[in-house]
Amino acid sequence: MKMSRISIVAVAMFAVVSLTVGCAAPPDAELAKAEAALNQAEQTGAPTYAPDAWNGARDAMSAAKAEVAAQQGKFALLRSYTKAKELVAAAETKATEAEQAGVAAKAQAKTEAEAAVAAVQTALETAKADLASLSACRRKPKGFAQDLEQMNGVLSGLEAQVGEAATALSQEQYLEASSLASSLQGQLESFTSDIASAKKKIRC
């Protein structure tokens, strides 16, 4: 029995619609891969060491998810995930770039923190030696002992903070270690300058 022309057209249209619906599947696997890349970027320090790249990756992921949700809110026959797939791919690329930027920036921060902590530790030892030299001066005018005690207290406080900077470095808190070490470097240099002025004043 031959099919009527109308029946043939109907079957063809049904096949096209079925194919279209079948192809309009959300990019779940691609989205999961992009999210994994974003999580990896977060774990390697991108939020801290490459905030701009990290924020860009998060924004791209949000845009991709929003597009997927927008399509899922439509009638099945009207859904198209073409744009969503493009946005997901872009989000994965940005996440990978954020990870790479984070790794590179963290490595640089580590190098800088190590140098800053080493420098401030050297400055601390210099300050200790200078204070010991002042303490050994033969001339000890009125108020000398009191000033020396105060200076020892100040130096002890600075030494404790240098220890904090070293601890931050060992815990991979590189930005904090650098910031603290830089601040202490200035304080120790000022302290050493004060000792030099004191020695000059008492002609030590």
Describe the structure in your own words.
The chain has 204 residues and is an all-alpha fold. The protein folds into two domains: 5-104; 107-197. The protein has seven helices and no strands. It has helices at 5-23, 28-43, 46-49, 51-72, 82-135, 144-170, 174-201. Helix 5 (82-135) runs antiparallel to helix 6. The protein is rod-shaped. The chain starts with a helix and ends with a helix.
Shape: rod-shaped
Order of helices and strands: HHHHHHH
Please, how many helices? 7
- Total strand segments: 0
Describe this structure in a few short sentences.
This protein has 204 residues and is mainly alpha-helical. The protein has seven helices and no strands. α2 runs parallel beside α5, α4 packs antiparallel against α5 and α5 runs parallel beside α7.
Please outline the helices and strands.
Blueprint lengths: L4 H19 L4 H16 L2 H4 L1 H22 L9 H54 L8 H27 L3 H28 L3
Helix pairs in contact: 2-4, 2-5, 4-5, 5-6, 5-7, 6-7
Can you give keywords for this protein?
83% helix, 204 residues, 2 domains, mainly alpha
